Amino acid sequence: MQQSPRARARRSRLSVLTAACALLAACGGDEPPPGEPMEVFDIVRDLLADPPAWEVEREHPKQAPKVDVISPALHHSFDGADMIALVLPPPSQVGFTIDADDGPAVLRARVGVDITTFKHLSDAVPTASFQFEVAVNGDVRFSQTITIERGASRVGSSWLDVGGAAGVPVAAGDRVTLRCLARDPEGELVEPGPAAFAGFGGLRLERRLALPRSRSSAASPNLVLIVMDTLRVDRLATYGYSRPTSPRLDELAERGTVFENAYATASWTLPSTASMLTGLHPIEHGVENQGNFFLGWKLSTLAEALQRAGVSTAGWSGNPLISHSRNFSQGFERFEDDIVGFRKTDSFFDEIGAWIDGRGDERFFLYLHLTEPHQPYTPLEEGRAAFAPRAARDIDTGEIERRLEVGEHVDANGVPRLDRAVTEREREDVSDLYDACVWSADHWLGRVSDALERAGLDERTVLVFTSDHGEELFDRGFVGHARSLMSELVRVPLVVAGPGVPAGVRIDAPVSNRLVAPYLAERGGAHLPTPFTARLFDDPGDASVLFSTEKGEWNGKRGLRILGMRTGERVVHVAPDGAPWGSATAAEGGDVHVFDLASDPGERKNLWSESDASLREELERRFGALEPVFEGAELRVGAGTQYLLQRIGYAGE
Predict the structure, then answer these.
(1) Disulfide: which of 325, 453, 558, 624 matches 81 by Cβ 3.0-4.6 Å?
(2) What is residue 290's predicted lDDT score, i.e. its pLDDT?
(3) In whole angstroms, how large is the CA radius of gyration of the chain?
(4) Would you kindly state where each structural domain of the chain is located, as residue ranges?
């Protein structure tokens, strides 16, 4: 089968990995410490984004096999998050042949049944069983049955790995058959009347290699990236805030470089974090909207690039969106998350400290996605005592957010009437609790720094501290994030310290958080392919930064795309489908806001006029030049992710 250039380029990573093995083995000066080699997985082919020539050998009369989203569970105690899958409504069967360039490899996938199937169960049919099989050249290599049950206390089921940890080995020219069958309670094969969503998620071919580990030094430093979720830059003393919320970040800034105007690529977690781990804009990596919450297998991530350079990788995430189930663990040898909900750092910091203590001379990349400033606001008690001693302990910011959006609390222009919806005391409590959480975030930054120093690694570790986005604290009548591109949401802290980093320096030029990934890759002796050449510490010249949201609100209309750009002291926001106040329909090309930060740092006065047309044209040119790294169908968000979004504060977006 003829392969696309992008597919061939992705598979060519195998030669890079082989070369890395030889290079590491030959470098006597960087001979790795004793210990087990590092197992690295290379994606040969994503069979869903770049499908082979499927041959449908059997299909359900009402639904042919197709690529779609399967979500096995709403309740996140199950490993049942949304996943792009080959849906095979039983009885269905497809076959394909392993391409000459794709083997030998291991077939990896998970099997699952979508939660919508439960609605077809009844008193007459209280259970349903789905049998999944993988055959290679007619020999069944995997067979597993998933049974769902009406009236279960927790509705849903979990994904199951095909072939367990080993997967299913395949070779070039092998004929692979995937089938899904349904059985009644007596075990007899049946053909369900409704077409059930069941099938194979994460279907891919991969190879594995064992790489030696490299050794750290001041010249070859360890790398630590701390992403503090939902951290506003203007609530940090390091950036001029009047309250002493960030003493440990102040210390880091004294021995490193502070970027005064760093911008996230988006105003909410998934697209912004994906940018920091790939070096790409959301349009390029594809994790930008309700149609894709999965970090594609064909993307090259920072962790993967560093692994190829012999760097050990580990990550801990306190945000349920940044999880293994959405493939944010790609390239991490160890990745700890929780699919149930938010975790504050005190619940898992001991694991992080123990991992740091065990590194010795082993060179590593440690990624920490911590959530102290994210709702719910539950600061450490010391932070509460210092910054929010009077604040109510049962304040529910999610409930306040819902209250602000009720019609009776909103004026004719869609602006909340704060005094009607939220008391002054509630606003003070939210603000103080947020500050206490910022102090708590700073506390954990200090604990990481202390752990590195205790292990004798601080002089050979580069530490990057940043955030994925900010938070609105009634600035424009709301709380939360994602709805706009105002500075309180997209301007983020960025402090870098360690060997080779200029100390006591503050850089005023705007930079994008997507530059973090190529910078850390370069410091790790690795290469991360990106379609741009800008570097974090470059002379900025006339640098511009881009940011966007697919969950925007514009003049009262929600769920819109908003594109933003800062260039110099000017900021432009364009809503292609946005309408001016009082208009029911969008003008041709949408609506535009322009702000001058020199005279209006709070972005309160829209200066848009026809004289700014060139600024808008520049934004459209820059966004128009962005292309997806790989083509793939935009898919709907599954029931599992929609439920999780509602629980963590993105309801209705």
Answers:
(1) 325
(2) 53
(3) 25
(4) 5-211, 222-380+437-541
